[in-house]
Amino acid sequence: MSRSLRTPLCERLEIDFPIFSAGMGPIAGPELVAAVSNAGGLGVLGCTSMSPEQVRASRQPDTAHRVG
After folding, report:
1. Residue 3 — φ and ψ, nearest 5°?
2. C-beta of residue 8 within 8 angstroms of C-beta of residue 43
3. What gap in Å lies between CA 37 and CA 12, rounded to an integer?
4. Dist. CA 35–CA 41, nearest whole Å
5. Facing residues of 65 across strands?
6. Please, are residues 17 and 11 in contact by the beta-carbon 8 Å criterion?
7. N vs C: which end of the chain shows fewer Cβ within 10 Å?
């Protein structure tokens, strides 16, 4: 018997799996956010220890990482 990980929350957030990364400041940076997002989960970037410039820079297009 197999179970589906597809849940109503997945449908609502348009993600493949109900997996969220925790926004843990510099420990979980843009690379982890991109990896989780690219794997079908929801990547979360913790910005409390970041300056506005760092937040903006982390949202810039990056050829190595696709977020979304």
Report:
1. -110, 145
2. no
3. 15
4. 9
5. 62
6. no
7. N
For residue 64, the tally of other CB atoms under 10 A from its CB is 6
Asked if 5 contacts 18 with a C-beta cutoff of 8 angstroms, the reply is yes
Separation CA 27–CA 67 (nearest Å) = 18
Tokens 């409390």 appear where?
A: 48
Question: pLDDT of 23-68, one tens digit each?
Answer: 887 788 888 988 999 999 999 988 888 899 988 888 766 555 555 4
Under 8 Å between Cβ of 23 and 45: yes
Work out the angle at residue 19's Cα, subtended by the Cα atoms of residues 51 and 65, and round it to the nearest 5 degrees. 50
CA distances (Å), 54 to each of 7, 14, 48, in order?
34, 27, 11
Q: pTM score, two decimals?
A: 0.72
